[in-house]
From TrEMBL:
GO molecular function term, any single one: molybdenum ion binding
A Pfam short name: MOSC_N
Domain called MOSC: residue spans: 87-258
Stored InterPro entries: MoCF_Sase_C, MOCOS_middle
Top-level taxon in the UniProt lineage: Bacteria
Protein name listed in UniProt: MOSC N-terminal beta barrel domain-containing protein
PROSITE patterns: MOSC (PS51340)
Amino acid sequence: MPYLAKILLYPIKSLDGVEVEQARILATGALENDREFAIFDGQGKVVNGKRHSKIHLLRSQFSILNRTISLQIPNQESQQFHLDEERQALAATLSNFFGFAVILEQNSLMGFPDDQNSPGPTVVSTATLEEVASWFPGLTVDEIRRRMRVNVEIGGVQPFWEDRLFNEQGDVVSFKVGDTCFFGINPCQRCVVPTRNPDSGEAYPNFQKIFVQRREASLPNGVALSHFNHFFRLSVNTRLPTSETGKILQIGDEIEILSAHS
């Protein structure tokens, strides 16, 4: 039986994640504390790995309960900040690191997902991450996990099992995680971030080319091909009905596909 094997939250968009045992569903379908904060420059543009590879050099550890971040900047001692009470001090430290002024914005209702039309948790199977890691000599499963930055991992299934959680364009797939209902929408389009070392920002040679070739060759039979205008896609974007607000995802929850519909 497929089951919920991991939950990963990313309290500040583009910084390190934190593994948790459970997560609460917000009214928008997003996970509480996931991408709740994002860094913005003076022009109102998000400061992320797509636009600023230097961000990979930052290490961060979060305490969800205490609402704190321990930030490690290269060649400096670790600094701790309270995300609500010391946000300006954190922004000032980040501004010094980047070399330009930044601010830290908060959205506690939906966070700052890449796909605002499908702000639910992204979903992948652990076996998929293991298979992808096998395509790249020298890369571990955990490094692929950190490159892909997916929220929910499914255990007990074969690689690319999650590709059955979306249907042809215009349709959705209903599935349950424990007693929480999800709508699977589409395979997540990847950006430049997975091509880079999550610690240094250094690019892996021909990462995207290798990935695309192997991903196309590994597509399961019957996969909904209408979403694949290219094959640099991995994990599934989701939405959740408002009826699921406040429900809790818990490690070990069983996963069941219900139906596909428009």
